[in-house]
C-alpha cells in the first residue's frame, strides 16, 4: 500500500478531513495505493494557491519566452520519467503499458509545441476610423483554470488542457478522477522540478460532490476545462454559468465507423478494432457504431470475428497484451448490463459478451471483446455511450442511408470512413456532423490538430495553434494622440 498526497501551493498534503480513497488495480482486483479524499476546504486552498501564483512576480512577470522554456523543460522531464509514469497509470486504470508508454513518450511534444507558441501570442495594431486614435489589442491570461479530467487517459487529456493554459500564463488546479489520481499526483511534481513557481500547478483529489463542485463554483476560477460524460459536462456547464466562467467541454460520443462497399476489408477490420477494442473501448472517440454496407456485411463480420478471436487478453503490464481489463468495477458491471440489454432488444451476440476468466485474469475486470449484429439505430446500444469493448454493427444499403444513420445521434465527436473512392471520401467528410473525421484510419490524434465535438459531444476545442486562445482574453486599447478632447457628452 502506497499513500500519495495532493499538491497544493507547492506542498504535498493529505485531505483536510484526513480521509482516503483506495485505488484498486483493475488487473488484480486489489487495493495497491491510496489518495487523499479531498474536501471543500482543500478545493478552496488550491484555488487560493493558484490565485496567489497569478499575483506572484515569479509567474506574473516572467516573459513569454521564459514560460516557453519552462514548458520545454517539463517535456524533457516527462521523457525522463515516461516509464515510471506509465507504470503508475497502468496500475491505476488498467490501460495497456504498450499504449501508455507510447503516450508518455509522445506527451513531451505537446509541451514543446506550446512552449514554442508561448512567445507568439501576438495582438494587432488596428487602423481606426477615429481620428487621432491609436488602437491595438493584447491577449492576457484568464487567471485560475480548473482542469477536470477522466480516468481513461488522465495524463494525456490533462495535457490537452494544461500545456496551452500554462503557455498562456494561467495557473491551474487539476481535479483528476477519483478512480485514477495517482499518476496525476506524480506528474504534477515535474512542474515544480522544472522550475514553475509553487501554486502554478496544483492537484486536488477526491469525489466530485465533495471537492469538485467547490472548484467549479469558486468565484476566483475563471475557466473550467472538463473531459467526461455528457451528464457531468452539463452539470459543470450549469454550475459555471452562475458566475459566467469560460468553459471547454470535451464529452462523450457514439461515433460511427463506416465501411463502404468499395472498402479494403482487411484494413477496415483493423480500423474497427482500433475504434472499439483498443483501450478496451474506454475512449470518448470509440467507434462503437460500425456501419457496414449490406453487400459486404457477412464477409466483414466473419473477418472481424477471426481477427478478434486471436486478440491476446491479459496483464496490461505485458507489452504483448492487446486487450486489458475494464478500469472500474461499476464500469465492468455496466458493460455486461448493456450486452444483456442489447440481446433483449433483438441484437444478435456474434462474439464475446461474457466476463473473461483466462489464465492470470481470474481476479480482474475483464470483458470479452463483444460484437453485436442485427442492431438498429434505435436500440439503446446504438444510442447510449457504453464505454467498453462492445461493438454494434448496423447494415446500410447506400451512402445516403449511411450518412443519415451516422448523423442520427445526439453526439458528434468523431467518425470514420473506409473507402477507396476519393469522391466518396470527400462527400462523407462534408456530410458527417462530427468534430473529427478519419478516412481509412481511426483513433489518430495530434497536438497540432484541433479536437472536440459537435452537438452534445462538447463545446470548444483542444490541441492546435488556435486553441491557446481558449485560455486567453482580448484587451482592446485606445490611445488618444490628440491634445484636445472633444465634446464629452457624445459617444465618439
TrEMBL record:
The keyword Oxidoreductase applies. InterPro entries: Ald_DH/histidinol_DH (IPR016161), Ald_DH_C (IPR016163), Ald_DH_CS_CYS (IPR016160), Ald_DH_CS_GLU (IPR029510), Ald_DH_N (IPR016162), Aldehyde_DH_dom (IPR015590). It holds the Pfam family Aldedh. It comes from the Bacteria. PROSITE patterns: ALDEHYDE_DEHYDR_CYS, ALDEHYDE_DEHYDR_GLU. Residues 21-477 form the Aldehyde dehydrogenase domain. GO terms for molecular function: oxidoreductase activity, acting on the aldehyde or oxo group of donors, NAD or NADP as acceptor. The active site is at 250. Keywords: Oxidation, Oxidoreductase, Potassium. PANTHER family: ALDEHYDE DEHYDROGENASE-RELATED (PTHR11699). Belongs to the aldehyde dehydrogenase family. This is Carnitine dehydratase. It comes from Bosea vaviloviae.
Amino acid at each position: 500500500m502506497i499513500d500519495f498526497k495532493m499538491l497544493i501551493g507547492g506542498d504535498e498534503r493529505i485531505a483536510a478531513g484526513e480521509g482516503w480513497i483506495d485505488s484498486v488495480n483493475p488487473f488484480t482486483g486489489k487495493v495497491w495505493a491510496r489518495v487523499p479524499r479531498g474536501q471543500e476546504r482543500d478545493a478552496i486552498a488550491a484555488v487560493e494557491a493558484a490565485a496567489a501564483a497569478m499575483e506572484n512576480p515569479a509567474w506574473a512577470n516572467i516573459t513569454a519566452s521564459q514560460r516557453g522554456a519552462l514548458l520545454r523543460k517539463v517535456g524533457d522531464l516527462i521523457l525522463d520519467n515516461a516509464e515510471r509514469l506509465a507504470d503508475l497509470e497502468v496500475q491505476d486504470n488498467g490501460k495497456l503499458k504498450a499504449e501508455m508508454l507510447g503516450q508518455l513518450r509522445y506527451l513531451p511534444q505537446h509541451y514543446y509545441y506550446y512552449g514554442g507558441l508561448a512567445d507568439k501570442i501576438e495582438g494587432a495594431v488596428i487602423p481606426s476610423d477615429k481620428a487621432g486614435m491609436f488602437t491595438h489589442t493584447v491577449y492576457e491570461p484568464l487567471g485560475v483554470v480548473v482542469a477536470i479530467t477522466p480516468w481513461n487517459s488522465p495524463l494525456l487529456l490533462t495535457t490537452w488542457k494544461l500545456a496551452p493554459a500554462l503557455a498562456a500564463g494561467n495557473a491551474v488546479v487539476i481535479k483528476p478522477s477519483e478512480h485514477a489520481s495517482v499518476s496525476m499526483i506524480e506528474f504534477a511534481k515535474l512542474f515544480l522540478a522544472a522550475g514553475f513557481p509553487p501554486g502554478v500547478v496544483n492537484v486536488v483529489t477526491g469525489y466530485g460532490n465533495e471537492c469538485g463542485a467547490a472548484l467549479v463554483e469558486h468565484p476566483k476560477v475563471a475557466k473550467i476545462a472538463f473531459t467526461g460524460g455528457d451528464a457531468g459536462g452539463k452539470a459543470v456547464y450549469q454550475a459555471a454559468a452562475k458566475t459566467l466562467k469560460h468553459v471547454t467541454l470535451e464529452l462523450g460520443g457514439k461515433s460511427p465507423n463506416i465501411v463502404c462497399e468499395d472498402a479494403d476489408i482487411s484494413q477496415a477490420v483493423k480500423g474497427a478494432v482500433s475504434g472499439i477494442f483498443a483501450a478496451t473501448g474506454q475512449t470518448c472517440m470509440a467507434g462503437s457504431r460500425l456501419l457496414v454496407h449490406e453487400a459486404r456485411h457477412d464477409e466483414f463480420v466473419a473477418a472481424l470475428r477471426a481477427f478478434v478471436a486471436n486478440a491476446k487478453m491479459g496483464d496490461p503490464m505485458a507489452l504483448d497484451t492487446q486487450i486489458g481489463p475494464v478500469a472500474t468495477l461499476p464500469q465492468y458491471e455496466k458493460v455486461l448490463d448493456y450486452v444483456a440489454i442489447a440481446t433483449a432488444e433483438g441484437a444478435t451476440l456474434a462474439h464475446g459478451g461474457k466476463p473473461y476468466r483466462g489464465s492470470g485474469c481470474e481476479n480482474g475486470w475483464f470483458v470479452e471483446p463483444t460484437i453485436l449484429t442485427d442492431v438498429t439505430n434505435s436500440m439503446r446500444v446504438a444510442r447510449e455511450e457504453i464505454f467498453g469493448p462492445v461493438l454494434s454493427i448496423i447494415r446500410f444499403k447506400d451512402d445516403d442511408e449511411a450518412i443519415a444513420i451516422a448523423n442520427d445521434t445526439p453526439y458528434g465527436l468523431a467518425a470514420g470512413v473506409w473507402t477507396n473512392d476519393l469522391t466518396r471520401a470527400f462527400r462523407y467528410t462534408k456530410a458527417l456532423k462530427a468534430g473529427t473525421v478519419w478516412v481509412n484510419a481511426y483513433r489518430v490524434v495530434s497536438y497540432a490538430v484541433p479536437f472536440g465535438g459537435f452537438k452534445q459531444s462538447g463545446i470548444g476545442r483542444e490541441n492546435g495553434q488556435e486553441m491557446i486562445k481558449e485560455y486567453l482574453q482580448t484587451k482592446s486599447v485606445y490611445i488618444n494622440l490628440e491634445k484636445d478632447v472633444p465634446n464629452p457628452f457624445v459617444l465618439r
